Amino acid sequence: MTVAIPAEQAPAPRKFGIDFSTPVLYAFAAILCVLIVLPLSWLLLYSLTDAKGHLTLANFVRLFSESAFLDPLITTFIIATSSAFICCAVAAPMGWLVARTDLPFSGVIRALVTASFVTPPFLGAIAWELLAAPNSGLLNKIFRAVTGAGPDVHLFDIYSLEGIIFVISCYTFPYVFVLVANSLDRTPGELEDASSILGGGRWYTARRVTIPLVLPALLAGALVAFLQAMTLFGSPAILALPAGFHTMTTKIWSLFQFPPKPELAAAASLPLLVLTVFLLRAEHMILGRRGYSVVGGKYGAPRLIPLHRLRVPAFILCLTVLMLPVFLPYAALFNAAFSPVATTFLTFKNFTMHNIEFVLFDLSAASLALKNTVILGTATATIGTAIALVIAYVTARQAVRGHRILGFLATAPIAIPGIVLGVGLFLSYTRPPFVLYGTLWILLIAFVTIALPSSYQQLQAAFRTIHQELEDASRILGATRLRSLWEITAPLLRTGVIATWCFIFVGVMRELSAAIILFTSETKVISVLIYDLNESGDLGAISVIGIGMLIITFSVVIAVNRIPGFGSVRFRNT
Amino acid sequence: MNKTTFSRRDVLKGSTALAAGSAFATPVRAATPPSEAITPALIEAAKKEGKVVFYTAMDLAFAEKLGRLFEAKYAGMAVRVERSGAERVFQRIGQEYASNIHAVDVVNTADQAHVIEWKRQAILAQYLPEEVVKYYDKKYYDPEGFELVTRVLVSPFGINTDMVKMADAPKSFADLLDPKWKGKMVKAHPAYSGTIMNATFQVARDLGWGYFEKLAKQDVMQVQSATDTPKRIVLGERAIMIDGAGYLVIRDKEAGKPVDVIYPEEGTPLATSPSVVMKAAPNPSAAKLFQNWVHSREGQQILIDYARQYSPHSQAIEKPGVRKLADIKLMKEDPAGVEKGAAEIKRHYTEIFKV
User: Fold this and answer.
1) Does B341 reach chain A within 8 Å, measured CB to CB?
2) What is the ipTM of this complex?
């Protein structure tokens, strides 16, 4: 892509306007501080006090001496490590196949990855209960019918450590896929051409040029997958109790049962925070200053590697993998929505509209929850994108002093399990001067904070790939920083921004862990409603709402992609 | 299944023993309020408010059914049901009230101990419907009108009869320890369910915590709500339900599903389920109207006919198919004991079952 400036046009005379960038930037820094520092301070304070408010280290002593806390800590570590490994092992080859080979229907594969990404993990966990509960699970029923095995024999047991790792991986691997595929999409063809010209074969080029270029993305993906798996509440909340163990997030949630023990919960969350900070530092040290500006003034399309006879097998392999997060769970939800008993196979004879009728006409909490969710999704996506955009700009262009701190603050929430952030916000906003609990505002703050790290990283990555030379050219020609942002950077970023907006909206639909602490009956969201329905085992109603939720999510993603002038945007450009 | 009809008198006889324990432990000095009928003035005032917010632990389908029938009877009213386990309802109200959020009008919990705490906090309104004073045994309501028993819950075993024949099924808590049931049982959790909180207290008191330690070695599948365990045996996920809402098993059996109830020999855990009107209810008249109607003959008949539960209303007519409360050997309810021991029960339980 080239930005052409007609040669005959003289540079515009410099206007003596005020450059508003500095005050705007400091304002955002202040917002960030309030968003993140306030709840974290309360958490830290609480972790160091006892129930009466005296300073103590007793919470940490309990944390590291009682098996009730140590076991979940170890379990969580195992889950996060295994999930990160599985995600990379699956997503990296798939990302490569889609981005750099002539895989047929690669657009379909990307769309299906998007589908698994937008599927709420708790919904996926419930669907996998329907599929792989040892006795009632549909897959186990099929297995027994096919093999003639006895009633106690099962192929899968979703209520196990392996089961939880599997379900978490199903809905975490898109993070790795998106990072790897995008990175590969952006790798310029020139570098590969250079390698080819110098005599490097296709595979040699892939190994020596393409893979090293994509390695930072893979490492970042592994890290994101690890952190997602570690801080996830939804899937463990559905599966861990029947499986007979706690993860850190479910343990923390259980600490808010009456009588609530926020000080212990705060203490229990700090190891997660410390570990995350450590990992982020480690990533930084490993990658060092290696970063690649791959979209400059010049751009070449990447070369596709022909798969030849492997085209069809590779496509089938991708499709098979995507059955796990998409086809099978959706089919199970559909089956449960229309059959009289959730895990009875649907036939024409037993088809029932009972669950649909129940959700539409009887479930009195549904309409309010739906309204709240849509309001929060839209508001969070709009505000979150705006904040992330500014911070990403500041850190990518090092526009103000202390930008590193801004970057750290924007990334910090990733280390805070949503449930713990929920508690921090609860402690912060239930007292004057900001009494926000009971309003949608507190949920908005929570969701924006939760969305910030990933949207910031996406947009920052987008900024990084647009070389500063483009902006510099504009500024040299007399534009203020804001003007060059608006006229040069913004159009280049457009797809990234739209994708981020979708990303956040979908994230709100998926969010359960902070909402479970912060909701009141007036501010309930769909995810909490589903969690409540799961508690009482109303699987038919969950399936109907879940399908409705997926329809809304897909509509938003598709609608935003179709807005005239925005062109067609896929989720790839995050 | 015992097919004899059950009468109110039997219920009352049978529950004398248990009700002795359900005394309202911390008497608050307050005048006895006058009993009130549903008057046109009340209906009009309620309709002006237009809605009721009902937090409850009862099974969702039943709670919504009550809501829809109430709306049908009093046009212009809307009932919003917020259902979760009684212990979570309790947590929710605590969390909201601590922040001065008064969103709830009427609460139905499955744990009498909650009422003790709420009375201590002085957040309950006094309200006595006329029919309650006329037709309820005094054991089933607070003379000061702070609470009324809405339904009497038992927590029997349940079985999936496709997976276990009735003849082979466990008949007692002791039977559940037989190695042949290992990995075949499902149980609800006292930290989420009020029924199970009471059941856990009663079993631990009568059989000792050692019993649960042995039970935990049986690979018991753990779920949250007492309304979830009956659904798990309908699914066929586990063959035996150790505890949970017996009424749902009876409903499912009557709907033709392959399930049945078993009342254990040592005694069946019991929980009377009270309803309260909040003092700071945002819709005070609607709250009274709803509370009055739910505890009227009409509301209580729905409880029996649709939800298959035990009613404290002496005029409500039983429907055959549910074993009389008097014919069930019941464990003794002790709300004061539960109120004092709740935190310790949760801790001890988690220690044993690891969740």
Assistant:
1) no
2) 0.88
